[in-house]
Design goal:
By secondary structure, this protein is of the alpha/beta class. The chain has helices at about 1-15, 20-35, 45-50, 55-60, 110-115, 185-200, 215-220, 235-245, 265-270, 280-290, 330-345, and strands at about 75-80, 100-105, 110, 140-145, 165-170, 175-180, 205-210, 230-235, 255-260, 300, 320. The longest helix is centred in the middle third of the chain and has 16 residues, at about 185-200.
Amino acid sequence: MDRIVNQMLHIAQYLEWDPTELRPILKEMLQGMDYDRDGFVSLQEWVHGGMTTIPLLVLLGMDDSGSTGDGRHAWTMKHFKKPTYCNLCHVMLMGVRKQGLCCIYCKYTVHERCFHRKCELSTSCDGGELRDHILLPTSICPVTRDRQGGKSDGSVSAKGELVMQYKIIPTPGTHPLLVLVNPKSGGRQGERILRKFHYLLNPKQVFNLDNGGPTPGLNFFRDTPDFRVLACGGDGTVGWILDCIDKANLAKHPPVAVLPLGTGNDLARCLRWGGGYEGGSLTKILKDIEQSPLVMLDRWHLEVIPREEVENGDQVPYDIMNNYFSIGVDASIAHRFHVMREKHPEKFNSR
């Protein structure tokens, strides 16, 4: 059994997991599979015990219940830093490691022993507390098209001739949330926000703006009814996202909420989202978005037409205004401040 445990720990290290707490868990599971107590796990014992032990399958990365498309929970082993109670027996997870099984989407949590009480355990995943925002795997339907634009039979050739696309069919009555995060905002505060949203929501609905900007996320949600957008960044990030929404030619412009990061958050203040995120509960922020009323925002497109044709001179800029606009000394100061913040983001955390 030690050889099996060591091999699993090598895989865990390759996946950048912390193997310290995995060893006793794996050893305990394998000992439970050793029915004849001879110190070895035979093929029959492995088939009988291993393939029915969900926590072991999770540790091995073999539990694919989240991708079956039938709405079941997608289980993962989790170490809880705060007091956590089992949703089935309502008893706190005890022990040094406080390990339990947690659905990655609705956060339904149970003891390992409670998991085996399948007659009492609800297997369906409804999205949990954030069901209005979360995009469940059952809502994402793959649509395969060939390069000529025609529908295919869903197979993928060895040459990669087919391109996989997705159609989103959200749960009735919900408003899936597209989260766009600028990881550079707030002295790299956006990087932490990105990781937290990957945990709270479906990672497929959370996009890093460093990877192609807002366009990939908007295209992914293009035909999704009643979706919302959460812009995580400063005023520049919000303006960038609004500009891309204008250019995306969507059938309906989605409502945009703001999670203000960094220092330039005047637009967020106007919309009453505050002057900056200070590490509060993101779950509470998501619930606030769910209950927030819609307001209109004036956006202006400036077009400068010279009176006379001039051969020499600077090119006329293309500008979009969001609520406020300034020229002169304060504009020069704001521009120099922006340049310095781009070079040294770690020095601009205060508000």
